[in-house]
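Renewal narrative, Specific Aim 1. Our central claim is that a sequence can be written position by position from structural information alone. The example that follows is taken directly from our test logs and has not been curated for this report. It begins with the structure tokens describing the chain, in the order in which they were read.
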């Protein structure tokens, strides 16, 4: 694929990723394979997608508005540990040998795909207001999600929404807004780390990021015309196929 064709392809992929994100999908499961198709190696594709999708995440966080009104105590309690552990996940990614990442990534893609396909069931895991997970379980779940978010990230948002629903915010749209704010803060330091280390493929990140911002803006209108279930199933199944292909290549 020539440079011009790759750039145009990544803009389109970014738009699709942004639309998927507004429908509650997993943007990384669109952006990551698109970068692979454009010729970016797996490790570089992962960090490039993390940086490119920051704009889409920021726009989602800015749209949170009144949905996070009064959520200051939750954000003050959750933001510091999730930001720090996400950075630790990014450091783990950087120090992981490339061969190890190539062997692990098929399972991470598969995990993100399964989480996406199970999203409706996960969203229904709201408990009664009086129910609470044990503090140790909350810490373990939150820490695991944050570490995974910094290392790879596909599906981390859905897992974080579920944890918020079970602990801090029983209303789905408010939990989703909190997730957007928390994750954009958690993704910032890893993105800076990747950029400083020179791991980001900017010729791919810029068109992908531009498309993602556009997709985030037009996503609500598109989502009203295309059933979210169709988008979710198509992306989820495509992710599982990609996981198999990556596993065969790694072998």
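The sequence written for that structure reads:
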């Amino acid at each position: 694929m020539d440079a011009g064709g790759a750039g145009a392809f990544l803009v389109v992929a970014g738009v699709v990723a942004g639309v998927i994100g507004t429908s509650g999908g997993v943007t990384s499961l669109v952006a990551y394979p698109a970068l692979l198709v454009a010729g970016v190696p797996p490790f570089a594709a992962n960090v490039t997608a993390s940086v490119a999708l920051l704009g889409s995440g920021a726009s989602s966080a800015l749209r949170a508005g009144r949905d996070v009104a009064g959520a200051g105590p939750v954000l003050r309690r959750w933001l510091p540990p999730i930001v720090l552990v996400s950075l630790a996940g990014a450091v783990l990614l950087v120090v992981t040998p490339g061969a190890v990442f190539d062997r692990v990534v098929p399972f991470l893609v598969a995990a993100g795909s399964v989480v996406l396909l199970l999203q409706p069931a996960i969203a229904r895991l709201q408990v009664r207001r009086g129910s609470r997970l044990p503090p140790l379980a909350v810490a373990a779940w939150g820490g695991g999600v944050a570490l995974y978010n910094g290392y790879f990230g596909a599906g981390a948002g859905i897992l974080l929404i579920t944890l918020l629903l079970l602990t801090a915010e029983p209303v789905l749209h408010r939990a989703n807004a909190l997730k957007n704010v928390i994750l954009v803060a958690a993704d910032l330091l890893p993105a800076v780390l990747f950029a400083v280390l020179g791991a980001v493929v900017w010729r791919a990140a810029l068109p992908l990021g531009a498309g993602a911002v556009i997709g985030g803006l037009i996503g609500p209108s598109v989502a009203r015309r295309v059933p979210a279930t169709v988008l979710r199933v198509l992306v989820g199944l495509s992710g599982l196929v990609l996981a198999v292909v990556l596993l065969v290549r790694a072998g």
